Amino acid sequence: MARLDTGGYTPVLILGDAEWLSVRAVAMGGRIPRDRVARRLRRSGILDDQGITPSVAPALHGVTGATRHLDVARFEPTRPGQRAEAWIGPQRATIVKHEPDGYHIYGLDECEVASAFVELLDVRPRPNIDLGPRVLPQQVYSIIDSGELDALTSELAGLARRLDRGGEPGQLGGPTPLTDGFASGQWTLSLISTSVPRDGGWEVVGSMTTLSVLECLYELIPRSVADALDSGAPPEVVTQKAEADMPEELVLEHMTSLELWVRVSPWFFAA
Fold this sequence. Notes:
Distance between the termini: 33 Å
Shape: elongated
Number of strands: 13
Number of helices: 10
Number of domains: 2
């Protein structure tokens, strides 16, 4: 399925899984393969006997010199999931968008990386009305970890039904902007992580999970991590709790779009 589109201002590669793995390995200095996948890449003008062809190189400069990898996924009940990655070097970045017909791969200047991820982060002006709930059950953690969007939609809708017992809006037993969003399926989940090269591989050095509705935005924090942060535990203890990766309650930590942007904006640049 390998295709190369050179009709725009920058070349765009459209590749399948095996093709992208092969191209990425060559761009990172690996040997030029001779297998069936490589033959498709040669026919498409992506590889030749010297490696990456000159017409394709601008799309892959970021991979070649990458000192940071960024991965952002956005999920919501009303539309298909979206995901994009960036391999970021000191001057250029390679953007990899996950589309129904394959990976769409193109290059950007490092200063343009943020523009490829704004939509996935659901950063928008909002009234920031925070009326709870403050905690999500352990089951939500497990469902997010499994990637089952339909199950998450059902679980959040069920949570809204259990919490909304006919009370006044904003009062105990009444609806809130967050439970209204859960009930109507108008919410957005974003998963954000960044990695840097270390010991011959890539190590995750930062991650966030956010949940938003039209009125408010939250970071989802495992209960043990939230408790450690509240108690002033040393950073290494907080890191240990975060790496435990055991299903537990999720604390909803209210934040603004600006606070989210400040947190993630360093991840748009080379490490």
